[in-house]
Write a structure and sequence with these properties.
Number of strands: 15
CATH architecture: 3-Layer(aba) Sandwich
Helix content: 25-40%
Strand order of the largest sheet: 1-15-13-12-11-10-8-9-4-3-7
Number of helices: 11
Distance between the termini: 10 Å
Order of helices and strands: EHEEEHEEEEHEHHEHEEHEHHHHEE
Strand content: 15-25%
Structural class: alpha/beta
CATH class: Alpha Beta
Largest sheet: 11 strands, mixed
């Protein structure tokens, strides 16, 4: 049995968990908060879909923390009753003079419920991506399938998803309505008691089917001559990722032969027996929902090759766009705080990762982006040897504490 290499400070202590919400609105806000863009460049570099890149002495280089060589396009497709959000390498010329894509806090809600969001708190998030820009002709590109956390929605991790797409990936994020924001708003996802382990496994299996169906969807779209994704999708080379509850969805996708690696951001454990493929867990030192100690147990249950990254100071929501919205004084969480709709315990959970002591997205997201992109490129054989996955990577990000464990 190969021993893990361990570096950096140990796990932080567990923080107090939140109690149950006292109103339906509070439940929506709390679960959304608990569950759960980059700069421009015209430079061209090695695309993720090109032949293997042979590199030397780059193991400790944070090569994928900055925006990648591609401008990013954004489009929304439909799968049955839900949106599928897609970020992808775009034709740079087609983005010139175009406005960037945006969404607000009401975007993920059904039309009949959009009015629930007060205008003063309906913060607009601007993505560093261009709506329906034609795909870059250098494709096809590998696919990254992403699942948001419980109470979340397909756009809530856009800050990091844009960055990953800029490195030559088609990033696909389904709205998982069964456990996402809409389920909390409508009551379909609320329960009077905690779901059993069997119920959670079944939900994860169904969501994994959705994730793999989204891979089929973008593959078919890439074959259409009139699609913005025409020629951009290489579905035979895919990776899966997920935040929080979405982690179990991503682990399950490893059973598909097209999916070569899975990366969980503060993920829940796998619903099934681990598949013998590369995995990576990325956690936050101050996460009160999925603590470093809990993530270490999940990591221990995976076969090698595997990696475990712990980043701080940060929390559960630092992975999402929510903290940026909170810092601007908007969003549903701030509305709940000012109107005293939730308890102090629930607010602590909502702000986990969004306080002054936590890293801002501009500091945290590049680290997550680097490790995610580096892990996928390694698993797909794009970088040989691996880039940015050496022991010295812990000290590559000024002002950020990193603990890095890997086997081998």
């Amino acid at each position: 049995m190969r021993s893990d290499r361990r570096h950096g400070p140990g796990p932080t202590s567990r923080r107090t968990r939140a109690s149950r919400p006292v109103t339906a609105v509070a439940l929506v806000l709390a679960l959304l908060a608990a569950a759960c863009s980059s700069g421009d460049t015209n430079a061209k570099g090695d695309a993720a879909d090109k032949t293997t890149t042979t590199v030397a002495s780059r193991g400790d280089e944070p090569a994928y923390a900055e925006p990648g060589p591609y401008k990013v396009g954004f489009t929304t497709m439909r799968m049955d009753d839900r949106d599928v959000n897609v970020w992808y390498p775009a034709d740079a010329a087609a983005t010139t003079g175009k406005p960037k894509a945006t969404y607000d806090q009401a975007t993920p809600l059904p039309d009949k419920l959009k009015g629930l969001v007060p205008k003063a708190y309906n913060t607009v998030v601007t993505m560093d991506a261009y709506a329906d820009a034609p795909a870059n002709t250098e494709g096809p590109f590998p696919v990254l399938l992403f699942a948001h956390g419980a109470g979340g929605y397909g756009l809530v991790n856009s800050g990091i998803e844009v960055g990953m797409a800029s490195w030559g990936f088609v990033v696909v994020a389904v709205d998982y309505l069964e456990y996402g924001l809409v389920a909390q708003v409508t009551g379909a996802g609320r329960a009077t008691k905690r779901p059993t382990e069997a119920e959670m496994r079944q939900r994860s299996r169904q969501s994994t089917k959705r994730m793999l169906a989204s891979l089929d969807l973008v593959q078919a779209e890439g074959e259409k001559a009139d699609s913005v994704l025409h020629g951009a999708v290489d579905a035979s080379r895919a990776a899966s990722s997920g935040h929080s509850a979405g982690g179990a969805v991503a682990w399950g996708a490893l059973a598909d032969p097209r999916v070569k690696v899975a990366i969980g951001w503060a993920p829940v454990p796998a619903a099934e027996e681990p598949v013998d493929k590369p995995t990576m867990i990325i956690g936050a030192t101050g996460d009160s929902a999925l603590t470093p100690a809990e993530l270490a147990k999940t990591y221990a249950g995976f076969p090698a090759p595997k990696r475990f990254v712990e980043i701080g100071p940060a929390g559960h929501n630092t992975f999402t766009d929510i903290c940026g919205v909170i810092r601007q004084g908007g969003g549903l969480v701030e509305f709940a705080r000012q109107n005293k709709l939730v308890s102090e315990n629930l607010l602590e959970l909502a702000y986990n990762g969004c306080t002054e002591k936590d890293l801002e997205g501009s500091e945290f997201w590049p680290v997550v982006q680097h490790f995610t992109v580096a892990g996928i490129r390694d698993a797909l054989g794009i970088d040989s040897p691996p880039v940015g996955l050496g022991d010295g990577i812990e000290s590559a990000f000024a002002g950020v504490t990193i603990r890095y464990v890997h086997n081998p």
